[in-house]
Amino acid sequence: MVLTGARVLNVYTGEFEQTNLWLDDGRVVSRLPHPDMKARTTVDLAGQYVVPGMIDAHVHIESALVAPSEIGHILLQHGVTTIVADPHELANVAGTAGIEYMIKDARQTPLDIRYMLPSSVPCVPFDNNGATLHAADLEPLYKYPEINGLAEVMDYGAVARDDADTMAKVHDAYAHGHHADGHAAGLTPEQLEVMRAHGMDTDHESATVADALARVDAGMYVFLREGTVERDIANTIGAVTPRNYDRFAFCTDDKTIGDLIGEGSIDHNVRLAIEYGLPAELAYTMASNNAARAHRLTDRGALVPGQLADLVVVDDLNSVNISRVGCILGVVIKLS
């Protein structure tokens, strides 16, 4: 297939380029004219824009109150082709069996659902819950290719005192080639450095510009959040500049199915960011390439040769009006 006539986002130059996009076997082959090449299918996208598929960098599917396979129906329509989920809530109820259910159910949707293993089950030692997951319980789950690391480490005290089980969970994530998300709500710059020194390299708990910049200073990727309850974009987007934007991505964290249907997912974050003055090319790059880099997903986030043909066709950049979605399993959804 070749897509012609559109302006394609180059996330490395920050420009929308008028060019062709050649696709084959689920991957990008070229973005050059190639008069000598022929495609079985030509799609004319004159006047439209093509951006990489959007990624929700941190989400709890359980907050939507639907199964992983069902949430795919909604998110793909909003240009989200990958999500990185923390099955913390179900794990608190059903332990590793709950996590395995989430993994296997997600295989029914073309939405690519990656999971971070929940780090704090239970949340606190005195919680009356359905399971307790230690490092030894979580480590066997890395056999599943959908596992992408360790989810938000929220027990700062355990990190600061080098708790053996907590640090074993972090070590296992890195030993399997992944990483560990942080949860640094209310932490000081000094405490942020402790978290980063112990391996937590992302955070989604910024509520102010100062919060976001402190996390960048500590060397973290920052996921700017807009969910159902926590609505942080208006108060944090001012932290993003052309010099530091590569440290920022977007997440929803917790969002009800009603809000996902009516308002959107990461497409809504992008829409708000542009509304508050962020250049469109930066917003779409944060929603794709930056999230991919933060989670070490090296095969997506940019529309260049060798990358997955994971893309979104947009009619209007500012309103994020989506007309087509092509996801990594080769499914093309035409929305209008």
UniProtKB/TrEMBL annotation:
TM annotation in the entry: none
SUPFAM superfamilies xref list: Composite domain of metallo-dependent hydrolases, Metallo-dependent hydrolases
Single GO molecular function: adenine deaminase activity
Keyword Hydrolase: yes
Keywords linked to the UniProt accession: Hydrolase
UniProt domain Amidohydrolase-related: residue ranges: 49-324
A UniProt-annotated Pfam family: Amidohydro_1
Highest rank taxon of the organism: Bacteria
Protein name in the entry: Adenine deaminase
Organism per entry: Lacticaseibacillus thailandensis DSM 22698 = JCM 13996
Lineage: Bacteria, Bacillati, Bacillota, Bacilli, Lactobacillales
